[in-house]
Specification:
Number of strands: 5
Radius of gyration: 16 Å
Distance between the termini: 59 Å
Structural class: alpha/beta
Oligomer: single chain
Mean pLDDT: 92
Order of helices and strands: EHEHEHEHEHH
Strand content: 15-25%
Length: 168
């Protein structure tokens, strides 16, 4: 029997409750879920890739399923091929996400038609959550408890305290 392997890529800067929802649900669809933490300097990360990997590993510890967390710095389809994936798992929050993700899925299919892209809709209560917005709220001293776990909140607040809040 062939092992179904899925890859869930992202920057996870920081990992949110929305990401966790997609991880939990994605892990049910495959025998092995590989969470690929990527470097994306254009997103101006708050945390280093090593810090993000440690954060994601801690957050997924104890979840059901065979879940691995690794870094990658390559084309997604090359990474997926190296991991033996037959599926890319992507989360959708809103119509705006769909347009971008649809285009990416089409390009990825052109690069490797053996790997399917599967879209999971975020839980309705989690749809507005975006890492970028979580960081912005924290930078202005807002409460991010509804969007991340307590441990992630503590890390974000500590980082904000280190780099300084905006508007103070």
């Amino acid at each position: 029997m062939t092992t179904r392997t899925g890859v869930y890529p992202g920057t996870f800067d920081p990992i949110t409750l929305g990401h966790m929802d997609i991880i939990r649900r994605g892990a049910k669809l495959v025998d092995r879920l590989v969470i690929g933490v990527t470097t994306n300097p254009s997103k101006n990360p708050m945390f280093s890739v090593e810090e993000r990997v440690a954060m994601v590993r801690r957050e997924v510890e104890g979840l059901d399923g065979d879940i691995r967390v690794v870094t990658f710095d390559s084309l997604l389809m090359d990474f997926a091929e190296r991991e033996g994936a037959n599926m890319i798992v992507r989360g959708l929050r809103a119509v705006a996400d769909f347009e971008y993700e649809y285009q990416m899925a089409g390009m990825n299919q052109q690069l490797n038609s053996r790997i399917e892209t599967v879209f999971l809709m975020a839980d309705v209560s989690l749809q507005p959550i975006a890492s970028r917005l979580v960081k912005e709220i924290a930078m202005f001293g807002g409460d991010i408890r509804k969007f991340v776990t307590a441990a992630v909140r503590d890390e974000v607040v500590a980082r904000v305290d280190t780099i300084g809040r905006k508007g103070s």
